[in-house]
Amino acid sequence: MAKIAYILLCHKDPDAVIRQAERLTAAGDYMAIHFDASASAADYGQITAALGDNPNVTFPRKRIRCGWGEWSLVQATIDTLKAAMESFPRATHFYLMSGDCMAIKSAEYAHQFLDENDTDFIESVDYFESDWIKTGWKEERLIYRHWFNERTQRKRFYAMFDVQKRLGLTRKIPADLQVQIGSQWWCLRRRTVEALIEFTRKRRDVMRFFRSTWIPDETFFQTLVRHLVPEGEISNRSLTFLLFTDYGMPVTFYNDHYDLLLSQDYLFARKISPDALDLKRRLGLLYSARGVQFQISNEGGSLFKFLTARGRIGRRFATRFWETEASLGRERELLIVIAKKWHVAKRVLERMRQVTNLPAIDFLFSEEDTPLPDLGGIQTTLGKRTRHRRALMRMLYDYYDSERLIVCMDTSNLDLLNDFASDRAQVRMLEIECSLTDSYLTGHAMRIGLAGDQTSQETLSRLLPTIRGDMLHETDQIRDAQFQNYTRLSEFADTDTNTAALARFLTVSDDKARAIAQTDNLFAD
Fold first, then answer.
1. Is the pTM of this model over 0.85?
2. Pair 87, 150: CB distance under 8 Å
């Protein structure tokens, strides 16, 4: 009978990790857990303390700090696979999963399914001939070397790419490999994993190549399995049910999707909402159940495409089942920096990035050219960003793989502030209070077309009080709204006061907050 060793990659929610491990191992299966080294050490300690005595749970010797699109994700997977192979010699299959996955079939069904299908389940299609990559780079992922993380070291990432492209510093793909691409989530037989690990020891050239490709978790295993295993022994599909929106982001499942998930021809589903407590409870009980009969209709993907198409042509007749939750997410934090002086806000935001390492985005609802990742088109215009603001923000959380996000907004964005303040996410606001000097107001008037190089001083002297009054009225409206978790960083306050405000807003130590507050020329024009 099949015995599954689950390879769990996770970085948050230790309670959920513990429950998942206890649930899956109680049915006789195994689990090897890699908990991201960039996550809380206390959370990792909680996991090891709870599961350390479980003989069906193991951990790799070293935790790796993982980053989206980096080789680190593949290395963490390889290390965890090795730990599972060593600890669980009776494991017949190795199933890669994330902390957002849950079983949608019973263990009894899963074991029987794998016994009846002696193949490796991994989506892998030709990298260049398929249309798997919908938007963005394709060949560039492979022929150029990528040493920096695109999300956390964006400037370095694109600077190195530009240098290589300008100088023609391309490289060749290893001659005997036909690069494949597909879903990160797979289920491989033991002999395949053994062959793969042996290949990694012998082929240093291939390892060097993939270490500097971009998003190798979508190509490394997919390519090597095709290279090592006869085609007739590969099922070109994942056993994890997941859907993607028009913008390339994974669909989230909620409490009312239980029956839909059980009817799909898959063993697991991703992503399960952290708020879907009833769905988690019912799926948790299901895995250990016996004698359950599953009616497989497998309509999930087709239904999703059908309803998406109707939405595009204005014939949406019901709530889309992947959009039953309009909130950013109860577990997420949205930190909003509010300012009229954009250059000051950007300076403050840059220091916040440096000190906290949190993703922070400039005036995305006010500046068309704000640098944003490719989200399938929703980010292309201010109109789309504003109209689909919650969908946009959810995609940004997913893109940065973070539960905390900082954004900048203009003081004129009161409607947006009111909207986000009503969300179930934890929302905090920091207003930057600055002096509105005549020189600043003159420059502002020229930037927005109210004045030009030839505008007389007499005209400016009549215009500036009106502009100043409008700006002060905007800040008065924001303060009159009495937002919860609102604080102020002020040019007129002392360092201690600003340090306390930043510490409250960012929920960081006084030392980190002071490092931001003491930045030279923080409020300078």
1. no
2. no
